[in-house]
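Quick review question:
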C-alpha cells in the first residue's frame, strides 16, 4: 500500500509511562523520513479537544529518548468520555488538517481511540504504553520494564533493613486492577508472599506461613501487595496491622506509589517504544486503522483495537506458584 497521508497527529494519554518520549521520537522521526508532517497535542485527548497542537521537527525530539515522563504531558480526559467532547476533538483535528492519529497510552486511551475512530470514521493507531502491562495483544507495554526495575531496586533496599531489624515489610506496588508488577517484583525480590487483585487470599494463612518461616529461621520477610489487592478493609496499612499479630514480629509498611511511573526508561523500554512507535506510524500512513501494534515472542505484531479491548490479559499461574515455591 502506498502512502496516503500528509499530516498526522499524535498524543500521549492516561497514566504516563517511561518510554513515552522514545515513542514520540519514533513517530516524529518516522514522519520526517516519509515526508509527513507531525502534529503533537498536549495533555492527551483533552489537548485534542482544546486544539493544543504544535508541529514537531526532528530537532524537537532530540535528547528526549532517555527522559522519563512525556514531553507532551498527559491527562485522563473526562470530557472525551462524552459524545460532545469527542465531537469537539474531531472538529479540532479537521481544523488542523490532521488525517490520522497515533495514540500512545493504556487501555483507557486505546478505548477512546477505538470509539473515536468508529464514530468519525477517523484513522487511528494505538501504541500500548502503561506501567501496568495489562494490555492484551502485546507481551509488554511501554514502561513496564522500567517500573518493574524501579520497584525491584526499592524492594531490595527495604530487604536490607528488614534483615537487619528482623522485620516484616508490607510493600505496596502499583496496579489498580491487576498484579503484573506485583508478581514480577515478588519473583525478582524473593518475596515471601504476594497479594494480587486477581487471586483471593487469606491474611490468616499468610500470617501462619510467616510464623512457620520464622520458626524455620527466616528472620525477615517481604510481602508484596498490588495496589488493587490492598483496598477497602484490606488497605496495606491494615494488612500490616493484621500481620503484626505474628508473635515477636515487628511489621512496617511502605507504598512505593508514583515513583514507579517516573525515571529514565530502561534500554528495553526505549527499544520497544521506538519499534512500536515507528511501526504504528508506518501502518497509519499506509492506510491501516483501528489497530494496535504490539510485541509477541519478540516480534512486532498488530491486532484489531476492538479485539484487544475485549480480550483479558491473564496472570501466569506458574509464576505465582514459583513465588510460593521459592518462599519455602
Ligand atoms: O495505570 C497506571 C497506574 O499507575 C496504575 O497502576 C495506578 O493505579 C494508576 O495509574 C494511578 O493513577 P493516578 O496517577 O491517576 O493516581
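Suggested answer, residue by residue:
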Amino acid at each position: 500500500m502506498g502512502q496516503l497521508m500528509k499530516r498526522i497527529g499524535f498524543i500521549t494519554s492516561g497514566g504516563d509511562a517511561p518510554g513515552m518520549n522514545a515513542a514520540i521520537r519514533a513517530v516524529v522521526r518516522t514522519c520526517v523520513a516519509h515526508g509527513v508532517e507531525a502534529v503533537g497535542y498536549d495533555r492527551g485527548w483533552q489537548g485534542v479537544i482544546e486544539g493544543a497542537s504544535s508541529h514537531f521537527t526532528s530537532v524537537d525530539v532530540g535528547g528526549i529518548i532517555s527522559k522519563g515522563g512525556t514531553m507532551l504531558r498527559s491527562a485522563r480526559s473526562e470530557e472525551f468520555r462524552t459524545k460532545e467532547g469527542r465531537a469537539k476533538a474531531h472538529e479540532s483535528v479537521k481544523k488542523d488538517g490532521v488525517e490520522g492519529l497515533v495514540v500512545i497510552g493504556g487501555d483507557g486511551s486505546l478505548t477512546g481511540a477505538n470509539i473515536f475512530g468508529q464514530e468519525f470514521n477517523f484513522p487511528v493507531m494505538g501504541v500500548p504504553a502503561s506501567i501496568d502491562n495489562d494490555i492484551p495483544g502485546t507481551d509488554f507495554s511501554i514502561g513496564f520494564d522500567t517500573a518493574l526495575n524501579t520497584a525491584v531496586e526499592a524492594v531490595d533496599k527495604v530487604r536490607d533493613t528488614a534483615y537487619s531489624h528482623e522485620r516484616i515489610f508490607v510493600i505496596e506496588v502499583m496496579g489498580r486492577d491487576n498484579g503484573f508488577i506485583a508478581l514480577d517484583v515478588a519473583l525478582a525480590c524473593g518475596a515471601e508472599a504476594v497479594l494480587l487483585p486477581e487471586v483471593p487470599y487469606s491474611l490468616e494463612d499468610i500470617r501462619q506461613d510467616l510464623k512457620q518461616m520464622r520458626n524455620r529461621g527466616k528472620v525477615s520477610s517481604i510481602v508484596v501487595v498490588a495496589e488493587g489487592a490492598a483496598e477497602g478493609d484490606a488497605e496495606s496499612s491494615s494488612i500490616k496491622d493484621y500481620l503484626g499479630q505474628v508473635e515477636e514480629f515487628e511489621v512496617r509498611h511502605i507504598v512505593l506509589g508514583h515513583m514507579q511511573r517516573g525515571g529514565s526508561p530502561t534500554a528495553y523500554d526505549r527499544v520497544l517504544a521506538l519499534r512500536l512507535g515507528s511501526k504504528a506510524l508506518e501502518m497509519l500512513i499506509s492506510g491501516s486503522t483501528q489497530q494496535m501494534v504490539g510485541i509477541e515472542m519478540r516480534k512486532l505484531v498488530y491486532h484489531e483495537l476492538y479485539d484487544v479491548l475485549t480480550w483479558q490479559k491473564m496472570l501466569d499461574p506458574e509464576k505465582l506458584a514459583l513465588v510460593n515455591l521459592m518462599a519455602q
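Why it works: The domain at 7-143+265-310 is CATH 3.40.50.450 (Rossmann fold). The chain has a mean pLDDT of 95.
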